[in-house]
Amino acid sequence: MRTSGAPRTPTDAELIRSVLAAAHSMTVVTDGLRSEVRHLDGSDPMGRLHLHPAGPDGGHGPGHWHGHEHEHRPAIRLEFTDIAPTPVRDRVRARVTLLGRLLTPYSDESADSTCMEFGQAVLETSRGVAYTGLEELDAAVPDPLAPFEAGMLTHLQDDHPDLVTLLLRLVRPLPTAAMVRALPVALDRYGITLRLEERRGHHDVRLPFPSPLDHVEQSGAQIQALISAARRRSHHNTLPA
Length: 241
Known about the structure:
The structure is a single chain. The strands form two sheets. Strands 1, 2, 3, 4, 5, 6 and 7 form a seven-stranded mixed beta sheet that branches. It contains five helices and ten strands. It is 20% helix and 32% strand. It has two domains: 12-139, Pnp Oxidase, Chain A (Roll); 149-232, PNP-oxidase-like (Split barrel-like, Alpha-Beta Barrel). By secondary structure, the chain is α+β, with helices and mostly antiparallel strands.
């Protein structure tokens, strides 16, 4: 939940849609069987699923879909893990689970879409657990950077580590001598997030763009704006080289 004056961040539903849009694999649990699907190729699995509202006997509250069975509608659970593309500590950024019941047969090998009565989406992050309904999920759109984020972050880290150090000038309060490493950990339409790793623990800092992006083509100018702002900041600090 965003509050007035707080840095803009994706909503829970937007983050879920973004994780799905960038997913290359998922775990499917149905009929007591657990299978790994690894051929998503970055295509949004929402295109392979037709999500339908739950019927009158369906549930919407947190946890309702665990354990309650209907013979004619087998339960299905789709699990996605969002992993940071850079070698940060604690690389799992989010876990997304879609819960529901099958309305048509599901097969890992089938190219046909699967109809699924939607129960709820569960988002697990370092901030806690959030539950999202179908209406919110339908209204949300994936972040325009989601399919490109991994390549952009690894390029920044591998080819321009000096720029990551430069961006630290925008962090307030300034990092202390306890920081041993800073890596880019996330990038979305609202800004870039750096993970500051210390000898004991770590924490993330968001650096917001001047304005949210609508297209990936706008990312270069927005990142350059942050870099220019960092260069304008005083050089008199104790940041590690």
